[in-house]
Every structure is written in structure tokens, then in C-alpha cells.
Amino acid sequence: MLMLRRLFQAVFLIVLTAPLALAVPKPHAMPAGLTRHHMIAAASPYAAEAGREILRAGGSAVDAAIAAQLVLTLVEPESSGIGGGAFMMVYDPKTKVTTSFDGRETAPASATPDMFMGPDGKPRGHFDVIPGGLSTGVPGMVAMLDMAHKRYGKLPWAKLFAPAIRLATNGFKVGRKLAKELREFPQMAQMPDMKRYFYHPDGTPVAEGELLKNPQLAATLKLIAKDGAKAFYTGPIAQNIVDAVHGAPINPGGMTLADLANYHAVERPAVCGHYRSYKLCSMGPPSSGGVAVLQILGMLERFPSAELDTRTVEGAHLFTQASRLAFADRAKYLGDPDVINVPVRGLVDRDYLKARSALIMPGKDMGMAVAGTPPQKHAEYAPQRTRQLPGTSHLSAVDDHGQVVSLTMTIEFAFGSETMANGFLLNNELTDFSFEPTRDGIPVANAPAPGKRPMSAMSPTIVFDAKGRFLIATGSPGGPAIIDFVTQSLIAMLDTHLTPQQATAIPHVLNLNSPTVLEKDTPAADLAPALTAMGHTIITRDLESGLHIIERVRGGYIGGADPRRDGIVLGD
What we know:
Layout: H1 2-11, E1 39-42, H2 45-56, H3 61-75, E2 85-92, E3 97-103, H4 126-129, H5 141-152, H6 162-170, E4 172-173, H7 176-184, H8 192-198, E5 211-212, H9 215-227, H10 230-233, H11 235-246, H12 257-261, E6 266-269, E7 271-275, E8 278-282, H13 289-300, H14 313-333, H15 344-347, H16 350-357, E9 391-398, E10 404-412, E11 420-421, E12 424-425, E13 438-439, E14 442-443, E15 461-464, E16 470-474, H17 482-494, H18 500-505, E17 509-510, E18 516-519, H19 528-533, E19 538-541, E20 548-553, E21 556-561, E22 568-571
Parallel strand pairs: 18-19
Antiparallel strand pairs: 1-9, 1-22, 2-3, 2-10, 3-6, 4-5, 7-8, 8-15, 9-10, 11-12, 13-14, 15-16, 16-20, 17-18, 20-21
Helix pairs in contact: 2-3, 3-5, 3-6, 6-9, 13-14, 13-16, 13-17
């Protein structure tokens, strides 16, 4: 298993309600016209259909997002699920308030700052510590969904579980992405629960189009539907999670029943700022995403829109320079706000961003950027590492009354910790902590600690026009690259005036304060010679975003589903 990981690293209840019909639309069958009442864009046709059925039944956008996420637990288990966590942005048209719900996983009480250090005093390999219980954080998804439902839900909690329960009982057809991930990570067959569920007796993984059932997950969802979120965090479901973490065949962990019982989701103020005539609200700490998105846009605002098209050499260059500067600040200042004092206001201060923007040199790559000194700076921290990981998903939804949800969900790496309990995969979110608690004697902001939430890059974002009306909901998976994926989609729509579908498909250009990455086998790769002449170090590789976008236009809504995944947009 170690060799395979290093190789990869090298290349990089009873019937609860009348069941909802779940006819599966063709992937990528984006509606050509408007939808006038409601819309959902999600990473699976099954999930989008479940969300639309809830909207048709009079449910809120939050209700639809919950139903869709429960289905994603089943049909896209490699990317998200109730064994992981999420951040949800909600816009309430009645109060005109945008808020966020934090369902990020937490470290168990057994966590220590050096939990990922080896006996030689050096950090263990990232892929060496992923499988098993050591990397598993206390899941926050169910608690967050419950909190959001109590605040903004309309339909009964149990009704939202019906689509996922029916699919888990009767089976679903394996999607392209799940089949592909199983082929690309053959080491998954070495974990007993994974082998039993995802593999045939002859050792081959399930293939695209095969029918896959999960009665164990159906039973789990029935319990949570009947007894609420407490059924997840106490009782037999919680005991099975603890047993799986402790009994993992590799890297057992120390999570306890008390860790689960003590978990709480948090409603946090959204982090908001302005870009040109628009107002944007996104997720604040423990996510670094909202701050970084606002920083990149703030630094680019002085440039004319015509110069920011990332499909051009000029636009790609300017974007990468602003991204370098944002990632330098991200590495130094961001972390769990319940543990460290994050200077959010200073980092998005307009005068500070103007000063940072002045460091951008048209026509020349600045090289490795260093963190700035924002106003209200609170502390000095050592830099953190950045990684691109595929275990995340995103959906956007709007209901008949204009409530909007932008929800990004994760289990961190593909198939999380490769450990299952109760029919779902457990996350490996603790590997989002920095493995080194100190660097050169300086504390690392994102070091592990009991009860602490690891830093994230998830960037669910909602945009408003100059009159304060909802305009765009967007977000993406992609590890730290989420920040650039989301920001690039916003520039594509706000500056270049692309449609949501065009924005999801635009070739990606990234810079995480490292080499500039151009999406392989796309027109972005053709920019390499000109960018190299500007001093960029170029890497080309596959970039698997998963943008799902909704835009309000005259008369209704239009949407976009990233062609790199199996997603779809549905509405009425």
C-alpha cells in the first residue's frame, strides 16, 4: 500500500413518506432556457433530481440541499457524505441576511500537536497517514444540516431522507466518476469494508452503470430521519463510528463516544466584501476560502475587466499574481477562529488590498510572494503546506421564494480515510492540519489540537448586484485550488460576461504561490510559452474542479454544471 501511495504522490423506520420519483436525467443535460421558479445544480443527476423533487413539494432551498447531500452520500461517496463535513451559505430573502453554517470536522480529545510526526522527528508522509482512524475527524455534516433545517427548513426532516433511503434500498447505477476513482486507487481494495462494498469477489471494482445497493446506509438514514441528529452522535451509529476508528487495520485512532456527543455545528457571520459594483459573501474561518477569494478580487479590481480574461496571457498572468499574494497571506494567518485570532477584517481591508495589488507587475512573474502586514494583525505564524485533493463536492440551490444555498461538502481525500461505518465512508479531515506544530520555532496556525477545526479552502459564495439582489451562487471542490476555481468562475461571469455553463467549463489557470499550473489538454496549456517568457515556472496537469453555479437573470434562473464531473442542473 505504501508503494502505491508513493506512486500516486509522485504523479499526483419503515417507509417515512411517499417515496419521491427519481428518474435519472442524462448527465450534463443543462436546460437551454430559463427556469422561472427554482433550480438546483449538483454533482450527480440523482442528487439534483432529489433536490428538485423537494423544491416541487414546496421545500426550501435548504431542504433541497439536505436531500441532495444525503443522496450524494450514497452515489458520490468518494467526495462527500455524512461521515464528513461541510460549509453552507444561506441567503434569506425575507430578512436580506446572508449567514453561514460551519459543519467542519473537529479533532478528537486525543489529538496532539505532533500526532502526524514520525519517530525520527520529521512529518510522516501525507499519504501514509490517510488510511485508518488516526486521520478521522468528528463528522460535522449531520449536525450542520440539522441546524440549518431548524432555521430555514419548511418540510419535515424525515421527508428529506426519503430519496436517499429509496435509492440505497433499491440501488443506483454507478456513475462515471465513482468508477474512475476506484480504478485509479486500487489500494482501496486492501481496506476490508471498502473491499466488501465496492469490489466483486474476483477483486475487480464495480463498473460504471452497475447497480449498487447499500441497505446498511438505508438503515442508518432511517434512524437519523426518525430520531434526528442525536441518532448520529449517540447510540449505535456513534458506537460503530468509534469502533471503526479504533479497529482500523492501519493507523487506528482515538475518537471516543464523548467526542461525538460533544460535537456542535456553528452559525457564523458571512465574510462579505465588494468587487466593482457587486457584493460577495463567502465562508470565513475556519475556511480560508472566503478571505482569499475576496483578496484576489480586491487586488484585481484596479485592472480593467477586459484585461482579466484568464483565457488570455495577460489575464492569466494578472490572476496568478493576485493568487500568489492571497495564498501567502493564507499560509500565515488563517486557521480555526475559535482557537486563534484571525485578522479577517485586516486581510480584506480595501486599502491593504490596494497596497498588495501594487506588488503585481504586468509582464513579470513576482516569484514566491511573502505575506503582508494587514491592519489589526494579531499574531505571527509559520507557513503551511498546500495540497490539491479530490474528496469534495458542491451544490447550489434556489427555491420558489428566493432563498439561496451554496453548499460545499467534503471527506477530504478520495474515499476519505478508506474506513466505513454504518454504510458510509469516514473522513480523513485531520490531515488538513499542518503536520508540523512549529516551524523554525514559530507556532503553526493550523497545527492539530483537541477540539480544533482544521483549516479549509472551501469557498461557497453568493453574489449580489448593485441593488442588493441575489445574482450568483457558486462553489467547487478541489482542495486549496478551490479558491482559484471559484474566483476564476466569478471573473468569467462578472468581468467576461460568460454564462454559468461557460464559466464552469473555462480552462483553469492556478497559482498557489508555487509554480503556475495550466489545465492539461486545454487551450490554457497553449499559454505556457508566453507565461514562461514572463518568468513563470509552468506545470500542466489535469484539474478536476466541480463548479455548480446558478445565476439570476431576467425572468428566472440559468445554471451551469462542471463538465469535468457528472453533474446536472434542474429546475422548473
